[in-house]
Amino acid sequence: xxxIKFPTAQTILLIIAALVTLLTWLVPAGKYDTxxxxxDTNNFTQASTEKSINLxxxxxxxxxxxxxxxxxxxxxxxxxxxxNIPNTYKKLEARPQGVFEFxxxxxxxxxxxxxxxxxxxxxxxxxxxxNSTGAFDAGxxxxxxxxxxxxxxxxxxxxxxxxxxxxxxGLAEETMAFFxxxxxxxxxxKYDALVGVACIFIGSSIGTMCSTVNPFSTMIASxxxxxxxxxxxxxxxxxLSACxxxxxxYILRYAKRVKNDPSKSIIYDQRDEIMxxxxxxxxxxxxxxxxxxxxxxVFAACFIIMIAGxxxxxxxxxxxxxxxxxxAILIGIVSKIKExxxxxxxxxxxxxxxxxxxxxxxxxxxxxxxxxxxISDTMLYYASDVTNGMNKGVFASAxxxxxxxxxxxxxxxxxxxxxxMPIMSPLADxxxxxxxxxxxxxxxGMGLFYLINPTGLILASLAIVKVGYDKWLKFIxxxxxxxVVFTLLVMTxxxxx
Length: 497
Fold this sequence. Notes:
Blueprint: H1 9-26, E1 30-31, E2 34-38, E3 43-47, E4 52-56, H2 59-64, H3 72-75, E5 83-84, E6 90-91, H4 99-112, H5 114-133, H6 135-146, H7 152-169, H8 179-188, H9 193-209, H10 215-225, H11 233-260, H12 271-278, H13 290-313, H14 317-334, H15 339-352, H16 354-373, H17 376-386, H18 392-409, H19 413-431, H20 436-450, H21 458-464, H22 469-494
Helix pairs in contact: 1-4, 1-16, 4-16, 5-14, 5-15, 5-16, 6-8, 6-13, 7-9, 7-11, 8-9, 9-11, 9-20, 10-19, 10-20, 11-22, 13-14, 16-21, 18-19, 18-20, 18-22, 19-20, 20-22
């Protein structure tokens, strides 16, 4: 039994894809009608599986469809995706997915994930270039010296800053860039790689879970629920603060234990492998020349520009990829790397993250199977039916759990918001609670499950540091259970305040 190893991330996802394929044979196919606003013609298009019709873009149209959303949310561009129309769900002829569809799903997923896959590969190339210059080793050596005796500040700072990115503009996929960069810093500080993964991933998770001004979750969900995004904001800020304190305290406790006794590390058996992957974690004395300083400055500037572009100018994956590609070229010029050497180094660096790219594609393939099998809306329909006649305290907790389950099938936060809010938010009216409770349930449920969701980013993140999903579960479960209990308690109490 000791020789039996936990499956790799790719295998786990393929097993899930096979189970979801089987699910399409068991779960009835079904679909809601959708409504989308056309800015060019100033009208709505209502689409069903049989036909599409154009409707006048008026509040009367929305009221007639039982969509309790102000018209200006559509005309102003706040809701630009198709939303589900309440009370329009209908069962359809079954569309079970077979073996051939299962085999094709990773390929389709890779094609649909092309933009984020290219981002990951270009980041890999950039990391390869900066590592070849020696600038990163010199920078780590300098930082380690400056933080000596105060390494715990690194944990607090990284987790806090990334959570701020998560709560303001939905920093999630972008964190993939930080793992290869920050893990060596944590190793140099005498922590293990799990501490680095936790600071980055948990920081992002808590930030997006307790989104405050995030346009991709809070704002779009509130708009789709027909309420102002500031409704419930104070509670979300308090929730963010509390969850961050709990999470940072948990990471610090584990980190201190590992620092005092490395054998207490959950991944102690991989210590040599991870050290070899990221360097020894302790750099030899490297002269921090002006050329290396400039290279590191360009490297850091890439991330500053990326964050500014995403938060201020609406950049997404293509612009981010271009930023990192230009950064790699500039570093090559500053470091006087030969053209042929630059290309070989860049390609090798990209190749190091190819496994991560495949994981992202396979995970997207699971969504492809569900969409082709038309079972996502069926899940939503039955989930909305569960809450009929519930006590309002139970309703708040149940809705949080429902969203956690739904996030396995719909991992996109913006997709979840526009598809579910028109259906779920009116349920709050029936039990006598504010619709912000449903918005909070959506955020907290998705955020909590995101910590362990294999169809999210965790498997891709772990693949960068070669850590198994089983070891992550062993690390995260005490914190996960604590946050679940705390969140359900907050949700239950909040409806009576």
